[in-house]
Amino acid sequence: MSLFWVMIPQLAEIQEQMASSKKVIMREEWEKRLNHIRIRKEDMNKLVMNFLVTEGYAEAVAKFRMETGTEPDMDVAMIMDRMAVKEAVQCGNVEDAIEKVNDLNPEILDTNPELFFHLQQQRLIELIRNEKIEEALEFAQEELAPRGEENQSFLEELERTVSLLVFKDVSNCPVRELLDISQRLKTANEVNAAILTSQSHEKDPKLHSLLKMLIWAQNQLDEKATYPRIKDFLKATLENPAV
User: Highest taxon of the source (predicted)?
Assistant: First the structure.
C-alpha cells in the first residue's frame, strides 16, 4: 500500500470529526494526530524508487536498490536509453534524439504527431540559435510548413518560431523564451513522458500525485478548521494556526 492510500482514511477521519463547525486545532494536538499515522518503510522506499525511475536517475536507482533492496519496476538499461534521448534534446542534438527514439520504438513518433512536430520545432530553434538562417528557412518550409497546413495550432507555433528571424536583437523579440534552455527542457520532458507511456509506465512520479492530494486535502480542511498547515512544501514545516 502506498503512502497516498495510507493518508486518505486518516484525512477522511479528521474531516468527519470537524464536520459540524470550523474548529481551531493547535499544533500540539495536530502533531499528536500525525504521530498516530504509521507508514511502512517499504512503502516509502517504493515511493522514492518510483521517483528515481520515472525521472531517469539510473545511477541513483542502482545505488538505492543495493542500499534498500527495493526493486525498480523497470530495467536500468531501459532507463539509461531513455535518459540518452532526454539528454540529447537538452543539449540541442535533436536529430540524434529522434534517431534514438526510433531505435527504442518507432511507433512513438508515428503515433504522436504533436511530439514529432515539437521535436522538429526544436530543430528549427537550434538552427536559429546557431545563426544558420538559410538552413532554418529551408527546414521550416520543407519540414514544418506542410504540418502547419494540416493543423492550425502547429501553424501558430511555427509562425511564433520563425518570428525569431525578424529580430536582429533577440532580446527585443516577444518570443525570445523559445531560445531559453527551459524550452529544451520542456521538449525533453515531453519526449520522456511519451517514452514512459509507450513502456506502460506512468509518465509522472507518484510523489507528484501525493503532493497534489496533500494540497487538495488542505484546501478541503481549510473550509472546516484552522490548523497547522504546510505552506512551504520544500521545507514541509507546519505553521501555527492563526487564532
Answer: Eukaryota
